[in-house]
Amino acid sequence: MCTEGTKIKFSYKSTSNWMLNVCLTFSLVLCSFAGFAQLNAEGNPPDEVLRTLTIKHPGAKASNWSWSSKYVEYVGYFEKDGFINKVHINGYGKWTKTITYLKQQDLPHQVVTVFENKTSKDAVVSEFFIENSKDWGKQYKIRFILSDSDAEENEFTYSSDFKLVAERTYKKNHIPYVVVEKFDETYHNASKEKWTFNADLFAFEVNFKLNKENKTAYFTANGEWMWSEKIAPKNEIPEDVKATIEKSLFEDWKVDNIAELHSNQIAKCYRVKFKSQKEKKYLIFSEDGDLLNKSDLQ
Question: How confident is residue 162, by pLDDT bands cut at 50, 70 and 90?
Answer without folding.
Answer: very high
